[in-house]
Design a protein that fits this description.
This protein has 300 residues and is an alpha/beta fold. 41% of the residues lie in helices and 11% in strands. The protein has a 7-stranded parallel sheet with strand order 4-3-2-1-5-6-7, sandwiched between helices. The longest helix has 18 residues. It is globular, with a radius of gyration of 22 Å.
Length: 300
């Protein structure tokens, strides 16, 4: 039987070296054809790895962590993705000219519509990253986002603009959130655990771009910043887009004056306003070629 993933044109995640032993996939298929008896219909009889009740039990939480990590790691490796450019930012920021769907009052509506400029900035920044990725066999500097709307959509869309692949790391939320349709389908992942999702955001990161956003964006920014500050992560370009926004919502000078961070800690990140300014920081850090004049980089 042809594996489903090959039918869909995707890499076979179950590639195996030759073995005379039966595979787990073969036994799962055989178990489905077992005659129905009180014994075979018992939960105890199910193969452990195909038993949903067992696999979602509290006692198997550690196994689920491992599976979530391993599935994504295998797929990214199969696609030859060595490094990424991470885009974090608000899901509620609309595309310019589109309604601020998340606004709860007139003030929020006005501010979200004003912030829509960052949709285009994120899209342009992703175009620069993706053009650079295409020049390196699509294995380096691949755009990765949280896979949702707003700034995340803009990042994946920027990759599509120039014909590049991009990654979406979605997570199951109480309110339904489907992946934005610009994510490369074969690189569209879904997570149960924030922890394993965060690992994959930063595991291959060569730069992290943070756009205006809410609690989730700030969590991702401060976690990245803390990892760099404590030496648990190599220093990479960490970009804050939007000087006006960040200057209002976080008082870094007050933190330094209070002594709760070192006076030099704000040097761990760079505040920028334009896609060109932000990408130049990344380009100079890695001594990358200038792709700014390449055809097709402009937003629509």
């Amino acid at each position: 039987m042809t594996p489903w993933c090959q039918i869909q044109g995707e890499p076979d995640m179950a590639k195996r070296r030759h073995t005379p032993l039966r595979t787990s996939a073969q036994d799962v298929d055989a178990a489905k054809r077992t005659p129905q008896t009180p014994q075979t219909e018992s939960a105890a009889y199910r193969l452990a790895f195909s038993d949903e009740e067992f696999m979602t039990a509290e006692e198997t939480r550690g196994i689920r962590f491992q599976l979530e990590y391993t599935k994504t790691e295998m797929r990214l490796s199969e696609h030859g993705i060595n490094s990424t450019i991470v885009l974090f930012g608000g899901a509620r920021i609309p595309e310019p000219g589109k309604p601020a769907w998340a606004a709860r009052n007139d003030t929020q509506k006005a501010n979200l519509e004003k912030a829509s400029i960052y949709y285009d900035v994120a899209r342009r920044f992703a175009q620069y990253a993706s053009l650079t990725s295409l020049a390196q066999d699509s294995s380096e500097f691949v755009v990765v986002t949280g896979g949702g709307p707003g700034v995340m959509e803009a990042g994946n869309r920027g990759a599509v603009d120039v014909g590049a692949q991009s990654i979406g790391l979605n997570i199951v939320l109480p309110h339904e959130q489907a992946p934005n349709h610009f994510v490369t389908p074969e690189l569209s992942f879904n997570f149960h655990y924030f922890a394993t999702r965060k690992i994959h955001f930063l595991l291959r990161a060569k730069a992290v771009a943070v756009f205006p956003g809410g609690f989730g964006t700030m969590d991702e920014f401060f976690e990245t910043l803390t990892l760099i500050q404590t030496g648990r992560m190599d220093a990479v370009p960490l970009l804050l887009f939007g000087a006006e926004f960040w200057g209002k919502v976080i008082n870094f000078d007050a933190l330094a004056a209070a002594g709760t961070i070192a006076p030099t800690d704000p040097d761990l990140f760079t505040i920028v306003d334009s896609a060109e300014e932000g990408w130049n920081v990344v380009r100079k850090f890695y001594d990358l070629p200038d792709v700014g004049n390449a055809p097709g980089w402009q937003a629509d």
